[in-house]
Amino acid sequence: MSDSEEEESPDRQLKLALLGDGTSGKTSLATRFAQETFGKQYKQTVGLDFFLKRITLPGNLNVTLQVWDIGGQTIGGKMLDKYIYGAQGILLVYDITNCQSFENLEDWYNAVKKANEDSETQPLVALVGNKIDLEHMRTVKVDKHQRFCQENNFSSHFVSAKTGDSVFLCFQRIAADILGIKLNKAEMEQSQVPILNSSRPEESCVWLAILQLPGF
Ligand SMILES: Nc1nc2c(ncn2[C@@H]2O[C@H](COP(=O)(O)OP(=O)(O)OP(=O)(O)O)[C@@H](O)[C@H]2O)c(=O)[nH]1
């Protein structure tokens, strides 16, 4: 066998876009996932931020996730279409303690449909209820969340960027769904625990760049 035949095949690359109202926790989810950090201080995303993280799915499949953290203020802006375009996965993020952030997902989803109206393939869409550490302040009923998922064929996720609860699992499930890979129960349970104290040496995390685009 020649050297080239022995070389590993290149990583799969997936583009995932985080959409939703300002303060729903998109940047916090991206940084929790890609950097295993959390900041209490709110700093509005202007335009978009961009993160990369490499994960390994069952079957030793290395996947590099490009996470596009799109600022909540971009809704209605002329760049939003371009940010969404080409994403294989969309995470519609809301804050479970903020009804308005849930109601406004309809507008975000419309923007996704518009950006993809000429595409042959449609992105996989996931509904992500964030801030489950604040369960006692929940104002968006789980029923409502589930109904929205069923009506639109979204996958369903509840996470906390603050504690890390289910954040890795959320990204892992979405990547696996896009690639048609089934995760078994053990794999899902392993990823569900808060990632605050776990070390995952097999994953390398590269924070690439922060693009701050004018006009929003
Ligand atoms: N308690 C709690 N607070 C959170 C969580 N996720 C985010 N926050 C807080 O919510 C605020 C907003 O979080 P961001 O991640 O900046 O929100 P965003 O959706 O990126 O906001 P934009 O940049 O305006 O689009 C910050 O003060 C975070 O610390 C969470 O899971 N639990």
TrEMBL record:
GO MF terms held by the record: G protein activity; GTP binding; metal ion binding
Subcellular location: Cell membrane; Cytoplasm, Cytoskeleton, Cilium basal body; Nucleus
CC terms in the record's Gene Ontology section: nucleus; plasma membrane
Top EC group: hydrolase
Keywords: Acetylation, Cell membrane, Cell projection, Cytoplasm, Cytoskeleton, GTP-binding, Hydrolase, Lipoprotein, Magnesium, Membrane, Metal-binding, Methylation, Nucleotide-binding, Nucleus, Phosphoprotein, Prenylation
Membrane topology: Lipid-anchor
Record bears the keyword Acetylation: yes
EC number assigned by the record: 3.6.5.2
Domain of life: Eukaryota
The reaction(s) this protein catalyses: GTP + H2O = GDP + phosphate + H(+)
InterPro entries: P-loop_NTPase, Small_GTP-bd, Small_GTPase
Cofactor (UniProt): Mg(2+)
Described purpose of this protein according to its UniProt entry: The small GTPases Rab are key regulators of intracellular membrane trafficking, from the formation of transport vesicles to their fusion with membranes. Rabs cycle between an inactive GDP-bound form and an active GTP-bound form that is able to recruit to membranes different sets of downstream effectors directly responsible for vesicle formation, movement, tethering and fusion. RAB28 is required for shedding and phagocytosis of cone cell outer segments (OS) discs in the retina. Also participates in nuclear factor kappa-B p65/RELA nuclear transport in endothelial cells.
Entry similarity comment: Belongs to the small GTPase superfamily. Rab family.
Protein name: Ras-related protein Rab-28
